[in-house]
Amino acid sequence: MSLLKREAENILLNNRREGYTLPTNNKLYPAQWNWDSAYIALGYSYFNKEYAIVELEKLFEGQWSDGMVPHILFHHKDENYFPNHNTWQCGDKIPSSGITQPPIVSSILKLMLDKHEFSSSEMERILNLVKKTKNYLEWFYKFRDPNDTGLVSILHPWESGTDNSPLWDFPLSKILIEENLEYKRRDLDVSSSDVRPLKRDYDCYITLLNKFRNEKYNPEKLYDISMFNVADIGFNSLFLKACKDLVYIATKNNIECTSIEKKITKTENKLISLYNKGDNSFYSFDVLNKQSLEIPSITNYFILFADLKNEEINNSVIQSLKKYNSNEKYFFSSIKPDSKYFEEIRYWRGPVWINCNWILYKGLLEKDLEFANKIKSHTLDLIHEKDFHEYYSCKSGTPYGANNFSWSAALYLDLINN
Ligand code: DGY
User: Fold this and answer.
1) Cα-to-centroid distance, 26 and ligand 1 (Å)
2) What is the pLDDT of residues 307-333, one digit of tens each?
3) Spatial strand order in the sheet of 230-231
4) Alpha carbon distance 285, 306 (integer Å)
5) What are phi and psi of 281, to 5 degrees?
6) 126-140 burial, b for 16+ CB within 10 Å, e for fewer?
7) Cα distance between residue 263 and residue 303, in whole Å
8) By C-alpha distance, which of 397, 151, 402 is closest to 285?
């Protein structure tokens, strides 16, 4: 175990650049990614608190003046990634993408504060990050829920973090792909096309990007003009928990946070309204096309992480999760293995991802400790057997995508310290 611990630490250190850490060192993702960095900071907090804080400070250096934290920060103008800074053409202080990602950073800050002692100067820096996180969460309510429904929308599949999930097949099928679209993917230079999104997915991603760039990423406009607008269960669960965790930290540290506090109940109730009792499942909602997205995705179970104050629903969801991929050796597959949408090795359409297991583990800790521990030991075994990769087949455990994957290493460090 301790050899693996050292390996995990070394992965983070080797992937570290000037103050931030790449998701992997195999050239697939040569920049700083938003939710990757949050997980990575948690990993560092177990052996280098300074690096943990700096990682998040670097992330917030790229925060836009309206509060948004982009999903990618291009600290170095590496043209081997597509779409790079030349395509996005935006960023306040740092060239960046013009969209965001799940704001898990708020929950990571809470976990770090719960777990470790910090000096007063470190505390000052962390509380500074907490204030910036508050602006970030306010940005979601203001620009991603302009009609005050309680749920925030994602306007691009990349914002979900689960890029090519079958969840997005229907909403993307409604998009008219831009004519004469020309671009060159770089991911296929370093990763096999069998495990990556399809051309049709990329055509949609870039059509959306171009549209947003034409509008200069004006957040006042994007909600209405985007051809993709989904209230995703996974995203809203992480968002709701982010709000709860922010309020918790703010209250403890006398930081004014009423804007977020006032919204939480509405978001919680609205999320509950997306529960389908017949199927015992939560389903995302396509806001633009007014349609429920009935796809058996593991992200529907992130609702457990949101800590709903509804024991009956939580228990039913736990029972359903126990059956989710009971026939496969490795869990949890990103899409239910017996579903017609399942693809064993294609990115977010089937493989097991360490961060999904970790989110469910955390969400279960206070609801079903035995099950939480089972997920933890199973996840540790998978890493022990197959090492720190981006994702794995649920049937054979075979790893795919990038190796030396930072969040797998970082979350391993959290799991062994719990
Ligand atoms: C990619 O390049 O595949 C990323 O997931 C986009 O965020």
Assistant:
1) 14
2) 999 999 999 999 999 999 888 999 999
3) 230-231, 284-286, 291-293
4) 17
5) -150, 155
6) bbebbbbbbbbbbbb
7) 17
8) 151
0.90 surpassed by pTM:
yes
Q: Is 81 in the pocket of ligand 1 (CB under 6 A)?
A: no
Q: What is the phi/psi pair of residue 73, to 5°? A: -115, 125
> Active-site residue numbers?
163, 390
Query: Residue 324 carries which side chain, given as an amino acid letter?
Result: Y
Of 317, 329, 219, the C-alpha closest to 277 is 317
Q: How far is the CA of 108 from the centre of ligand 1 (A)?
A: 21
> How far is ligand 1, taken at its centre, from the CA of residue 277, in Å?
34
Atom of ligand 1 nearest to the CA of 33: 7
pLDDT of residue 325: 87
Which of 82, 99, 156, 158 has the most ligand 1 atoms within 8 A of CB, as the residue to mutate? 158
315 residue type, one letter: N
SS3 230: strand
Name the E strands within 125-276: 230-231, 275-276
